[in-house]
């Protein structure tokens, strides 16, 4: 204890965090790093494998339903007009009438590397094996500018390319490089997590998802953290899981960490709880604004309150898609082919435009921007245009009918039976009621085979997605605590995390919208969003690092030998020692 009183926090992280790997997987990106690092590596959570059967790039997610119905389109236009009245900008029909003369748009041939970073073009990934194989890892580990420069040099030496017979495709491509593969290349692109869950479908079975997850994470450990296979047993893993994950997913990911990646031990922490520790708080309402899912959960004195959790099926990528819709509607978008589903590089461009120009503020918000077009294997074309109504898309967080999230087809019923009977025990056991668990939380309340009859994907996890806006979700979450003293404290301790939290003007917008959403009969008159001490995009990762470093007893850690020998079983006395009963806690591993 004397050591803890005198040690400097940075020294503690350096000493105890050198062999702790913190992993925070998300729908769009995975954040990975050693606990001693100031910030993690953030890598797109996707993988592309070469395919002999496919003549061109195949994106698994083009199987989703992205068609907008007439009713949805009408609801979207109605939401736009509501937002327009709040922001004091012209209504949708008024703007169209006023814009009978198209805005001037010019094409800029070539791209100026001296332009600000936000206007820079992405380059296509070189999918061929280079002669100097040993140089590839170093290049992939360097920053984006070096990668872009090296690719540009490769483009300039096209005349010296080997013949077609001599060229050899890379078998696997990871991260952002996978998203920048040309549609003409013979690859299958797979995103490992979608809308907060493993991306299981009849075209992407569970075992294939787990193999790809293992391959990507193994590549990150080798190329980014430089941890070779023979040294993995010297490291432990801290898994910071999203609230959306269910027990099957946590179990399988733990197996990958301990069995396949060969960590000596691992522990599971919850994303919302880790975020509170990452900002040095003890009580807060954590609002996680991710790329594809948003969630709300309240933490009191370092303990998460499970009945306060809300999940919203939209995020930053939906705002990017809405940005494209608003520009097309106002005829400010260049006449170029944009296909987010089959050309992932287009989504990268839209995300960059959103991050650079979208913010929430009153009045008309326009900006001159460079939009890039990416045609098959051709250099990017640049189009200078004036984007308009840039404050409307992020307001979709409060009016989700503006966003119209894509719908994903559910996995087939057979998926639940074809992978080693993962939950055979839980499917055939009558769980006892737990008096200390709220209704609907403990998986034993309504678990049984009949639950799959009217299958929605997340039905195994009692939490359901809310069909409300962000302000309503925050208000409902806090009011569900039922205690006026705690409610007042939480309304003044709202914490925004995730990439969308960086949106300009979002904090005052949340404060204003939440205050107006609180029922008039509630004696609450103040709402405050706390400024984040850590970058909101990786505050949960940082909190996971802090939790791991400060966990001296490690009572809740799962050891590799025990996991492989015993797995996890119902009714064990040992549980994952988290402040909120994760669903994984219903299945606890036991020592022999």
UniProtKB/TrEMBL annotation:
Region (Disordered): 132-162
Highest taxon, organism lineage: Eukaryota
Signal peptide (residue range): none
Biased composition range(s): Polar residues: 135-144
InterPro entries linked to this entry: Actin, ATPase_NBD
Transmembrane segments: none
The family this protein is said to belong to: Belongs to the actin family. ARP8 subfamily.
Name of the featured protein: Actin-related protein 9
């Amino acid at each position: 204890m004397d050591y803890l009183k005198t040690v400097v926090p940075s020294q503690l992280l350096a000493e105890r965090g050198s062999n702790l790997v913190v992993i925070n997987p998300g729908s769009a990106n995975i954040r990975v790093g050693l606990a001693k690092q100031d910030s993690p590596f953030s890598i797109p959570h996707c993988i592309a494998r070469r395919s002999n059967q496919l003549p061109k790039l195949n994106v698994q997610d083009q199987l989703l339903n992205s068609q907008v119905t007439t009713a949805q389109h009408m609801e979207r236009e109605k939401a736009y007009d509501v937002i327009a009245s709040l922001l004091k900008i012209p209504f949708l029909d008024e703007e169209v009438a006023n814009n009978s003369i198209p805005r001037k748009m010019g094409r800029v041939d070539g791209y100026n590397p001296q332009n600000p970073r936000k206007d820079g073009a992405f380059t296509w990934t070189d999918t061929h094996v280079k002669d100097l194989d040993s140089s590839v890892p170093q290049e992939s580990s360097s920053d984006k500018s070096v990668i872009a420069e090296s690719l540009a040099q490769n483009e300039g030496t096209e005349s010296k390319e080997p013949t077609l017979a001599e060229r050899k495709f890379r078998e696997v491509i990871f991260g952002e490089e996978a998203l920048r593969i040309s549609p003409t290349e013979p690859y299958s692109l797979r995103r490992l997590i979608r809308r907060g869950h493993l991306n299981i479908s009849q075209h992407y079975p569970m075992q294939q998802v787990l193999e790809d997850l293992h391959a990507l994470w193994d590549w990150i450990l080798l190329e980014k953290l430089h941890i070779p296979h023979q040294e993995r047993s010297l490291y432990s893993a801290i898994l910071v899981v999203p609230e959306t994950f269910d027990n099957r997913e946590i179990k399988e990911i733990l197996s990958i960490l301990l069995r396949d990646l060969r960590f000596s031990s691992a522990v599971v922490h919850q994303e919302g709880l880790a975020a509170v520790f990452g900002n040095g708080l003890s009580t807060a309402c954590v609002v996680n604004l991710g790329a594809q899912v948003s969630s709300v959960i309240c933490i009191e004195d370092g303990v998460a309150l499970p009945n306060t959790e809300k999940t919203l099926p939209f995020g930053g990528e939906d705002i990017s898609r809405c940005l494209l819709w608003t520009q097309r509607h106002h005829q400010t978008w260049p006449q170029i082919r944009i296909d987010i589903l089959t050309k992932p590089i287009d989504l990268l461009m839209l995300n960059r435009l959103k991050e650079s120009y979208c913010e929430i503020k009153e009045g008309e918000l326009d900006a001159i921007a460079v939009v890039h077009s990416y045609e098959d294997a051709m250099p990017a074309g640049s189009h200078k245009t004036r984007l308009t109504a840039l404050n409307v898309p992020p307001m979709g967080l409060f009016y989700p009918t503006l966003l119209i999230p894509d719908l994903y087809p559910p996995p087939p019923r057979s998926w639940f039976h074809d992978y080693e009977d993962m939950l055979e025990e839980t499917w055939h056991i009558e769980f006892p009621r737990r008096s200390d668990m709220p209704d609907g939380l403990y998986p034993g309340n309504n678990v049984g085979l009949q639950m799959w009859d009217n299958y929605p994907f997340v039905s195994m996890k009692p939490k359901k997605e809310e069909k409300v806006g962000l302000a309503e979700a925050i208000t409902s979450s806090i009011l569900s605590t039922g205690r006026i003293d705690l409610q007042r404290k939480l309304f003044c301790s709202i914490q925004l995390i995730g990439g969308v939290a960086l949106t300009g003007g979002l904090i005052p917008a949340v404060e204003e919208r939440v205050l107006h959403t609180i029922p008039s009969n509630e004696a609450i008159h103040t709402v405050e969003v706390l400024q984040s001490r850590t970058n909101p995009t990786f505050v949960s990762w940082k909190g996971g690092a802090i939790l791991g470093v400060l966990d001296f007893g490690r009572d809740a850690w799962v050891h590799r030998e025990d996991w492989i020998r015993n797995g996890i079983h119902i009714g064990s006395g040992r549980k994952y020692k988290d402040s909120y009963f994760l669903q994984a806690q219903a299945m606890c591993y036991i020592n022999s």
